[in-house]
Amino acid sequence: MAITRKEMKDATRQRLLSAGAKVFAADGVQGARIADIAREAEIAMGTLYSHFPDKDALFRELMRAGKAMVIEGLVLARESSPTRAGRDRAAMEGVVAFAQVYAPFFRLLLSRGAGDPMQREVVDAIADLRVPELLVGQAEGWIRRDIDPKAAARCEVGAVFHLLDWWIDNPDQYTAEQIVDQLCIARRFGVEGGGALSDGGSLPPASAAGSMTP
Question: How far is it, in rounded angstroms, from Cα 144 to Cα 151?
């Protein structure tokens, strides 16, 4: 079946967005050059300008698409299981898979950049999605009452980003499944958590130093 003109145009646009994510992540929004994005996409400058009038327009579309993708994934994870543990795992599996497949894009979305408003919006949206869950947890007794939900939500986002940012450069250190395990443990129990859980569970035994075995 022949590829339609629209399909070719859409494919070219996706190549430009992928190239933009890589160049923006490497050089920053201010340092990125439109010529470098075209070169990375292996597309002529004229073709690039037929899709985007300038690099700022490309960046804005990239961030809008990325924000929608991340939020949609987290919402689907929240609806994926009747248990908190199941929902947490689905969310962490989605985030880890995203970081694996779209590493530069992942870094661009969650780095917050050099004060760029659109990058701040992504982090804000992820944290804002988590806050109501933490408030429910406090009301139901499975989240500490002395934790501020807004602060805790941002701590979670930061912990996930920094672990995966490091793991992207060190993929041989741990498997994706091990990373998911640790993110779930950190999210559910806390780094210094202790005591029985309200759902009858208990903390896993401490493993050997440096081990990712739960």
Answer: 13
98, HSE (Cβ side, Cα atoms, 13 Å): 22
Single-letter amino acid code for the residue at 134: L
Task: Express each pLDDT in 41-77 by its tens digit.
Answer: 999 999 999 999 998 999 999 889 889 999 999 999 9
Distance CA 61, CA 97 (A): 22
Cα 69 to Cα 86: distance, rounded to the nearest angstrom: 20
Spatial distance between the Cα atoms of 129 and 14, rounded to a whole number of angstroms: 27
∠ CA(157), CA(162), CA(165), 5° rounding? Answer: 120
List of residues 6+ apart from 28 with CB closer than 8 A: 113, 114
Q: Which two tokens stand for residue 79?
A: 């609806």
Q: Which one has a higher pLDDT value, 29 or 97?
A: 97
- Least confident segment among 49-58, 113-122, 138-147: 113-122
Residue 174 gets the label, from left (phi > 0), alpha (psi -120 to 50) or beta, of beta
Burial (CB < 10 A; 0-12, 13-18, 19+), residue 15, is middle
Dmax over CA atoms of the chain, in Å, equals: 63
Q: What is the pLDDT of residue 189?
A: 80
State the Cα–Cα distance between residues 21 and 23, nearest whole angstrom: 6
Which amino acid, residue 67?
A: K
pLDDT digits 0-9 by tens, 25-44 = 888 878 889 999 999 999 99
